[in-house]
Amino acid sequence: MQMKLWPAVALATAVCVAAHAEVPDFPLDFSLTSTAVNAFGAAAAHQRAGSLVSKMTLDEKLQFIHSEYAMSSVPGGGAGYIQGVSRLNIPDLNMVDSATGSGSTSQASTTFPATIALAASWDRRLSTEFGKQVAIQLRAQGFAMGLGGGTNLAREPRGGRLFEYLGEDPVLAGEMLAERTDGTQRQKVIATIKHYAGNEQEHNRGGGNSQIDERTLREIYLLPFEIAARSAQPGNVMCSYNRLNGDYACENAHLLNDVLKNDWRFEGQVQSDWGAAHSTAKAINAGLDEEEDVGSTVYLTPAAVKQAIANGSVSTARLDDMVRRKLYVMIRTGVMDDPPKASTIDFAGANVFTQAVAEQSMVLLKNDNNQLPLSAASLSRIAVIGGHADAAVLTGGGSGNTRDPVTGSFAGCGGLTFGTSTGCSWWTNPWLKLNVPIVSAIHALAPAAQVSFAGNSDQQTPFRAYTQQEIDQAAALAGRSDVAVVVVAQPAGEDFGDLQSLSLANPSNQDALVEAVANANPRTIVIVESGNPVLMPWKDRVAAIVEAWYPGEGGGKAIADVLFGKVNPSGKLPVTFPMHDQDTPTWGQNGAFEPDPVYAEKLDMGYRWYDAKNIAPMFEFGYGLSYTHFAYSGLSVIHRPDGAIDVLFNVRNDGRVAGAEVPQVYLGVPYSGEPPRRLVGWEKVGLNPGEARRVRITIPQRMQSVWDTSRNNWRYVPGGTVYVGASSRDIRLQGS
Ligand code: NOJ
Question: Which residues form the Fibronectin type III-like domain (predicted)?
């Protein structure tokens, strides 16, 4: 078998020693895989921004802090628009959603895999490239600012927007976000990180009050933002809809001024989520720099701000600061001097990239007796069942979606719609013919076999329950086939609410479908398309399981490549897959969502919860199999004078095929309230059969620290236990 790796992994392999230079006043030191972008030197950019502000009239300044365009009228089908000042050569700034590609409502875009998939790749360079490829398309469509970069954590495993985020660990999420941000800004597109902060559920999304103590905030929920803000310097931070400890996020002085702008020295701008501003003077004085209007919320309009200045509740110095921040970001990223121009998009090239991302992110969850990879030569009849595998793969709905290139509208999704008119979760691309459904992709790899599909081919109501007749037909097909591939799908999207359960509820009887097929054919392989963990009551009765996430437009081919071993899976779970809903930290007595969620589990979120409570998950954080096997040995832990720790160990591919492993370093910090283990570093290492590599991962002092509420600062806690594992529970080496 050939090892097919995106060049990113190959490169990461070559430099598997993580270098972390010391910056005295910045102990949280994560080096990017490249140097953070700065098209224009920071000092010069500040000076130039200041000089421009001094030349602007009051009206010109006010035009810079409020996007008054209803989304339907934003040029180019974007989400927001700030008009430039031509007499000062300041260009217009047009922005668009970009979680999985451009969300323009009128222009075609590639559909990239969901970002939960990107997190599952654990591949930093792939994340940089993801940010770059999305940004190339944004610029070609005329957008200078992307609104991707979601990084709320998977506290609520049923969260409706989990697919837009980067999993449950703050360090994994933060580093992947930093890389993505850097990749975007290198293309002269301003990057956004969002939704800041405490926005971990859709329930009561307009105003829920997330109650999170300071230590939990600093160590868990703010950390991904801090890592990205400090190391990649995104131009834009989007504050969220919810309240945090009483105040709305967009008028929360602690969140915006104290933490973001003062502690982290963030020099960019804070923008409200669409309609998330709730006041004029309070918000401005708390640190909000720009309001995004959805028609009804009008707090930073020229009239309102003029009045606030007149009555003294907002100072002109603060207004200048708001404008200067925006200009600074435009100058620094290169948008000011080189605004985007319409150009042609290389959809075929981007399609190849999306397939590579999907391939690197798939997680092999189970593979009894090496049932995978399949060998085309030994199969004459292949059954493919369910999940509309004959037509398309699933993507998430809402602003984390892309539009159909043919019609440019949400409604034109090849007839496959989900939920409401604003959600098109099934993606087809008949115009470009780049979307190869799973059935066709399998057929291409096993041309001599008969590949048959059974399931629900209903494109108008794709998520209706399978009928008993459809289940019986699927089982009969499986019974007369050499192998049965069952595709199950869990749709989700912004503004569709959170999932009620992690069970495969939509359609409600997908579990029955899997059971019937598994009863008919012991060689049943399950492919899961989801943005959330799913429950698998049939886990022990199927031969193999692959988590494919929402794999983007190259997903069909990527899935087939994994099934037939053209790609050796190397993804690892960025989120715990529990055994039952009741095992999750947020289920409580009956699974009801709290309108004002209290983060009572504190630091014990995600895998920390299962470890602290001794609950066995179905598949733990960091878990993922390969078609080869990796052996770990030779741990040494070296303490450096600066307090950092170098963790060195060997990883050997002792199987017969090439593959990539993600060795993970966890730390048990000896301090009250800390969870048993926290992730502090990892590498993705590509190895040929028999090849070994010595990996070095440096843990900065800050990653060995806790938030000390009595001092309102970080406290370094030396003497922790170092664990090196193939997952958060498959610990192979241990030292102190
Ligand atoms: C609201 C969403 O929460 C946010 O993520 C998105 O960027 C804006 N709408 C603009 O579409």
Answer: 661-728
